[in-house]
């Protein structure tokens, strides 16, 4: 397995030197040494794999990543802080947990008292909605981790109207903005931070990356992802029961995963009931000896039932082909789940071997779910570390978990590339081991 | 924060060179290159932290760890394999998931057909129980991940009767033994493997480390741990409701954690309802201005209710003191939960400020729980990689997750030290941030 | 509120007098009296409501219903029994629990050793599937209540091929058939029993009514119904979160309920998040001041979000109208959920007040679900009492819960009419109280 | 089976005639007839069983019970209402659901704007706690059904200080009091209502009976009971897993049930894993051929593991005997769970057949649980009907479900006797059928 050996620049932009004594109190260990603040010099290696090609001593050459955590000297005087929090894009389990944690850390640990929630994403800054501001404090957020969604609401778009957004930020007098959102949101945040810089303002922009698909680079696991997998297994279990109880039963579950198949791959392993996993990274044929139809038939002949999990971004080549054959142009099917449902039923009808297919699309149930406790904990730690970063004057920065450490990653770097399931990597290999999926169908390049 | 800089020897013992072509088929990528086997030379760095003290280029000097996964050449001819699987010690979520995964990988991927489950731990090899063997195959294990416990049963002890165990292994004609268990079990496994070596037998001994407390070294997260945290939060929520609904309500929950407080620390963060976390690594006073009684009183005066989580190994110094004052010797209280319950009630009665304390000990409910899907997935990958290791002739080896990679760790190394919550580390710091626990009570050294 | 005062004939058909001493042992109370067998004379009143119109002393005139339970003298000699069990129609939570309970009662309480499961419904008796028989015993059914679906599989149709089915029953030498299924299944069972009678065979046919919609007459609550409501609330909660987190968010959930709105009504009350409940029994307008569009707009203006639950059989008049206007005939929309989704979005777009509608159809997730424990208990008691009935020689009979007692109901009677939500009754009234649904929309007759 | 044939007086006390037009709007059916108000004359029969002993036409002689629901004419002018709500005694799932429903019905349906929650039970009226009042409105109660416990808090006792309580009620100017609590609470409520009467005040006292044990007479099923059973099955499942995974494993679960074994009986049937059910109504021996020890040994010899469920009130005769033999008086064991744990372990040690016993006491986890949706629905309907009753001027009245109808029951009647599991009835018989418990152990009278 060969690994990307690009050298990355993990330098974290800052608003300036921290000169204010942090008000937070930490455990004092070994007498008078205050030990568990984190220094900017504490880093971890990015590249940690060793193989015959690894140059002896140059791991640092691939980049070292700054650890997150509270700094002993911070940039902002807590009394002067006015923080804004915004959630953008589609729902994802854990949004409220991140909000709650950020608010509590600002309030209890730094003594910040002016915290503003901006409702419905960037649109809330653009005058698109009434009552778009919400005062946040520990009482308001006390129980919000018990419900899904975002108490701030969310919406898509608006992030490209940078000038207007920065105008609004200035009007609101914010000097700290937490952007909870995905790729587009963070690109917007970067543009906002750059405009802030142009205007010579001192406003920290810190992002908490949200991507239920887990497809952001430089973040090991996105928040909400574990919850998504847990919820998704419930739908797979339902599909399995339906398939198992029917004559030639086929359960078909469409899961999230626009560009990468992480949810589908993990769900397949976590549920133990999946026979075929179709993801964007691994193209598949429908027809032919190695195609889905034939392989599915073999499975049905052997076991009478089958379960297929398909990521929403898988098999787009088939949809395109279908659109072409369809000619008129306005009937392009965009939904691989519905497409497979139709094609499978038609195919097996045509060969006189009818199947009993049940199709489940649990997307809204999954993404609006309450975070499971271990995910909630993760959200909590991301939120806390985001506050530490902003108080220390970091900006244009995301909070991330990498090589099992909480770290700072430049937004610019994180939004440059996406994360994909490596068809040659251990995850996909373990999916094959676990599902016993026909090996011909697991090959990304034919 | 200073880090242990000992250099470790991660050399993996093997029975011999792999000369057999692996029967498993993997994705063929880029034409004829078979790419996703793992070579023994693929390793990851153990030490990945960088700070001012780090010598420039010597990360490898701290040890490199071999990646787990299927080898292209394996040691055992699958036709000759007779594998044994054993589960020892207390229950832990995920035992059945590990068994299931090992059986399926042996059967479907390598074609091994002789798999024996040994019932009730090492005692099952010692003639202590009737019907102590159980044939395992994919049908037998098909649905076992839906129930908790271990289908093989489990028991404590017996691991020190090495000679008899190896005699039994010889009688059973096993050439591969998977030991699923904790510290003691793996030490037993090492002794067994050494005796095997002395007898010049070719039997692979591969361990899957089980420790619900998460206190094994060289493993990032033990299987079942996430499930334990999820289940524990349910008891904490119950304690919170009880406390919240009573006059001066105090909820007290005792969680597992004999030597280390990982479950308590994670549960406190995951549940968001905990005010005091008492763990073995951080001693606490009962009396005095910084003691639990006074701090608890302050909390009650402010909010009228409080939740305390205590790890079973916390505060042992108090139990010892109590035993001394008790004199007679036979009434030594060994249970910190019951001890705190009694002391708190007595103290607050004595100061005319009675509390309404509800005590919950959910240990058996937690440890017998079915693994949550994400934990089940993890068990599945550990079991699969354990089989790959044994087939490749590795022995005296554990499967572990380190720095986010599945790796091989020598049993000898893993059982040498335990893993503790670092009171100066980021986990404990985030616990303080999250619980707003009084800072005086978070100090390990007074 | 006026009540149906028809007098029903609850006479239970039997194969003949019970002459065999029951082998089951029950608690002997008060010395030698064996007390807790049930006599055929033990009955309950059907009509229990009293009002000014009730004739003084004639409750028995409305019919009395025989209590279910073990008879001291039974019809069949257990040694001669060969029992068949069949599950038909769509899935429903609890099928396996009923099967399990029937098998265990036959086996452990009566000593019956020949129990045959017929796979895939009536089709399994018609040679439509291979391997359509399955031996049942306590070991086979031991853990089946932990999974959903039916281990026997199920399928629709075939119940009208009475002659062939009775031929098959004769070939299999069954003298007892348990039919677990809905309206159609039980009508089929009745026809089968009548053909059995014509052939002068002594075969008991006892039904356990299955209708997730809860729309069978003479049964208070169908098994699986509670589980369906619990699962449905999860989707409503998701819809609520989605709606609440969006600008003008509308959550639309389609639930089961072809002819009656019990699931929708109960789910609305159980979830506390529903603003509009649309059921078949209460027609509604889309347009006009009292129509859904206008009322929904009012709700959105007031609260910015709304949740609608619609039973699949509601608003069929709109679909028909839509079909007519559509003219061509082949594009008739049959799905009220998708229809409402389209119409609502189009309407609010057309008035320049766009809504953010999320549509959830959780049917397969609900019906394949594992029964919740209280439902499982109910299934268990139905199965047990079905066995008691068949052993006693009852036939053409359903097991039912009425006025809180387990009773026998003639299939002929139970399949004659359906059960509906009474728009003038207490259930619908409590729905209105609970949802604060606009009163104009709750009126069944305009 | 013989039934209690006492004739009961179900006359409902009222404050006076309803003269106020109800402000609530209900569905108008059939033109101008307003049909779904409930008249005081609408009743149901109490006695509905028919057997050879039933006198022909005298069902009404056993009492008829008034149906609950909104009256067309009500006693109180909503503008003048000041309602109080109080929760007393131990926690029970659904308390918040009842509060929420009562508040919403008062507010939205009747327009009542002055609703006061009294904190911590009767003690909150007695000056025992600070800040003992809480304004209630739909916003305050909006999400409280998602948490367990009671937002009003609860406490035991105080209900006998009738004079002081009525003084407080007068000071608060309440004219409507909802008492949510058990036997003692409702007896207190009755005394309060009598004192109110003596003082010639017009204050309605309406109770919602709370008893997690389900042991109140004249109520079919108490709220929270279903949730308790669902939660209890989780502990039984844990006990089963522990027992199943150990050598001679015994799982012992103590459940609530001070005087009656309903939770234990239902949980045994709902969980399918229980072998012995010990309830207060059915005495059992420990020693002897029919005793628990011998029967447990037989089970272990046959299956190697066993699960015992014991209601907290079971086997009190053994505790008393134990206390006697213990002599000193101060070491009386009051806990049947801990007692059985000790005795079983000692016994099997003494006969050289050691068992591996795991003891689980889940009481606090159960009673603080959030109500399951179907239970929540039930709470909601109880709360709504309680408001209808009080608005109509009913007093000294409980809301109950009887023969599947919501009805009014005089407090005086409901608190006179308790409800027990009838060892000759269908529930206990079905427990025996379901658990295959040794028949000798199911006999209440030896």
Automatic annotation (TrEMBL), chains A, B, C, D:
Pfam families, per the entry: PFK (PF00365)
Segments forming domain Phosphofructokinase: 82-389
GO molecular function annotation: 6-phosphofructokinase activity; ATP binding; diphosphate-fructose-6-phosphate 1-phosphotransferase activity; metal ion binding
Listed cofactors: Mg(2+)
GO BP annotations listed: fructose 6-phosphate metabolic process
Residues annotated as binding substrate: 211-213, 256-258, 312, 364-367
Residue positions binding ATP: 90, 156-157, 182-185
Principal location listed in the UniProt entry: cytoplasm
Catalyzed chemical reaction(s): beta-D-fructose 6-phosphate + ATP = beta-D-fructose 1,6-bisphosphate + ADP + H(+); beta-D-fructose 6-phosphate + diphosphate = beta-D-fructose 1,6-bisphosphate + phosphate + H(+)
Compartment list: Cytoplasm
Keyword rRNA-binding among UniProt keywords: no
Class of this enzyme: transferase
InterPro entries (alphabetical): ATP_PFK (IPR022953), PFKA (IPR050929), Phosphofructokinase_dom (IPR000023), PKF_sf (IPR035966), PyroP-dep_PFK_TP0108 (IPR012004)
EC number(s) per entry: 2.7.1.11
A cellular-component GO term for this protein: cytoplasm
Keyword Oxidoreductase: no
Pathway: Carbohydrate degradation; glycolysis; D-glyceraldehyde 3-phosphate and glycerone phosphate from D-glucose: step 3/4
Residues at the active site: 213 (proton acceptor)
Function (record text): Catalyzes the phosphorylation of D-fructose 6-phosphate to fructose 1,6-bisphosphate by ATP, the first committing step of glycolysis.
Family under the similarity heading: Belongs to the phosphofructokinase type A (PFKA) family. PPi-dependent PFK group II subfamily. Atypical ATP-dependent clade 'X' sub-subfamily.
Matches recorded under NCBIfam families: PRK06830.1
Name of this protein: ATP-dependent 6-phosphofructokinase
Native species: Salinispira pacifica
Protein encoded by which gene: pfkA
């Amino acid at each position: 397995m060969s690994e990307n050996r690009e050298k990355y620049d993990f330098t974290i932009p800052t608003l300036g030197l921290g000169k204010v004594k942090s008000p937070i109190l930490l455990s004092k260990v070994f007498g008078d040494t205050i030990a568990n603040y984190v220094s900017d010099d504490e880093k971890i290696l990015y590249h940690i794999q060793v193989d015959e090609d690894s140059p002896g001593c140059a791991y640092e050459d691939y980049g070292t990543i700054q650890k997150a955590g509270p700094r002993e000297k911070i940039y902002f005087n807590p009394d002067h802080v006015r923080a804004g929090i915004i959630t953008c894009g589609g729902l994802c389990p854990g949004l409220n947990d991140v909000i709650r944690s950020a608010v509590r850390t600002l309030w209890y640990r730094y003594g910040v008292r002016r915290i503003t929630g901006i409702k419905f994403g960037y649109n809330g800054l653009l005058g698109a909605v009434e009552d778009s501001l919400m005062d946040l404090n520990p009482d308001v957020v006390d129980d919000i981790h018990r419900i899904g969604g975002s108490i701030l609401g969310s919406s898509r778009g608006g992030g490209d109207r940078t000038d207007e957004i920065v105008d609004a930020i200035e009007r609101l007098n914010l000097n700290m903005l937490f952007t909870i959102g995905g790729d587009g949101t963070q690109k917007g945040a970067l543009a906002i931070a750059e405009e802030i810089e142009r205007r010579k303002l001192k406003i920290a922009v810190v992002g908490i990356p949200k991507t239920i698909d887990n497809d952001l680079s430089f973040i090991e696991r996105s928040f909400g992802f574990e919850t998504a997998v847990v919820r998704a297994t419930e739908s797979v279990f339902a599909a399995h029961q339906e398939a198992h109880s029917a004559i030639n039963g086929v359960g078909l579950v469409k899961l999230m995963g626009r560009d990468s198949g992480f949810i589908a791959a993990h769900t397949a392993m976590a549920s133990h009931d999946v026979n075929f996993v179709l993801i964007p990274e691994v193209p598949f044929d429908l027809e032919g000896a190695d195609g889905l139809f034939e392989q599915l038939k073999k499975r049905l002949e052997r076991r009478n039932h089958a379960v297929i999990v398909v990521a929403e971004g898988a098999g787009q080549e088939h949809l395109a082909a279908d659109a072409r054959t369809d000619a008129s142009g306005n009937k392009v099917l965009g939904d691989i789940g519905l497409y497979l449902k139709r094609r499978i039923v038609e195919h097996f009808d045509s060969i006189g071997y009818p199947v009993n297919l049940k199709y489940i699309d649990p997307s809204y149930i999954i993404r609006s779910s309450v975070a499971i406790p271990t995910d909630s904990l993760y959200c909590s730690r991301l939120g806390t570390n985001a506050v530490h970063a902003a108080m220390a004057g970091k900006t244009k920065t995301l909070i991330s978990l990498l090589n099992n450490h909480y770290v700072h990653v430049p937004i610019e770097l994180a939004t440059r590339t996406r994360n994909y399931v490596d068809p040659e990597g251990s995850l996909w290999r373990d999916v094959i081991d676990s599902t016993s999926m026909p090996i011909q169908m697991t090959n990304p390049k034919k």
